[in-house]
Amino acid sequence: MAKVREPAVAGMFYPAEKEELLKLLAYLCGEPYTGEKIKAKAVLVPHAGYIYSGKTACEVYKRIVIPTHVIILGPNHTGMGAPVSVYSGDAWETPLGVVEIDREIRDRLLQFYGFTPDEDAHKFEHSLEVQLPFLQYLAEKEFKITPIVLSLLRYEDALYVAKQIAKVAKDYADDVLIVISSDMSHYVPADKARELDMLAIECMERLDTACLYERVFKYNISMCGVIPAVVGIEVAKELGAKKGILVDYTHSGQVTGDYSSVVAYAGMIFV
């Protein structure tokens, strides 16, 4: 019997009803992107409640070609499961339907040391789940996913993980996308968030993951997905990416009106 992960945060981070979710996605994504779609190697997108960060996510997703193979990297907010947790079931469900796990990529990754077949890290984790409805809404063809939850790793270990993912991803050339799920600064004033986040974004724009890792810890930037970002950007480089482009930067205060303590969101495309 197929193991299907049911949504953990539908009704909280986004609507649990299909029609309501479609209506919200239509509002968040606005007019269709009229330019030529970008064949991105990777993207960085936020994972907060849709009313806060959904527009930023849409600004990224609507600009890119969503390929057949999507590898989603997210941080571990629950502390459950393995340090490098590769979802071991068969599919993920959202109110918009079921998306199959990319078994071929999953099984190849699980041959590498340190990559663990696991469901515990994924069971209640929201950072990967919230990406799926955007992908389902905007994809022009069927796609499969490889969800990977990453704990806080040493820089050297993150590079090792990236190297293994890149070995597999390279075989899919232009038909693979790395999705990096991360919010930026948490619970600081809006101007402080921007000041700190731009230090991290500068590093990501030039694909300098050593700079990113160092600055996040040196300046205490509360970017929850720094490890997915290091891993994803390194994979993107192996796939031929030359730069990161900042598409959008927003914060929760723009919705709540409270600029004294915000969570910030960046949308980036790596090409």
Describe the structure.
Strand 5 and strand 6 (97-100) form a beta hairpin. Strands 2, 3, 4, 7, 8, 9, 10, 11 and 12 form a nine-stranded mixed sheet that branches. Strands 1-5-6 form a three-stranded mixed sheet, with helices on one face. Helix 7 packs across helix 10, helix 8 (190-205) packs antiparallel against helix 9 (209-218) and helix 9 runs antiparallel to helix 10. The longest helix is centred in the C-terminal third of the chain and has 16 residues, at 190-205. The N and C termini lie far apart (40 Å). The chain has a single domain, classed as LigB-like (Protocatechuate 4,5-dioxygenase, Chain B, 3-Layer(aba) Sandwich), CATH 3.40.830. The protein has helices at residues 18-29, 50-61, 103-109, 120-123, 126-129, 131-138, 155-169, 190-205, 209-218, 226-238, 253-256, and strands at 4-5, 42-45, 69-75, 84-87, 91-94, 97-100, 116-118, 144-150, 176-181, 186-188, 244-251, 262-270. The protein is built from eleven helices and twelve strands. It is globular, with a radius of gyration of 17 Å. It is of the alpha/beta class and 271 residues long. The model has no long low-confidence stretch (mean pLDDT 98).
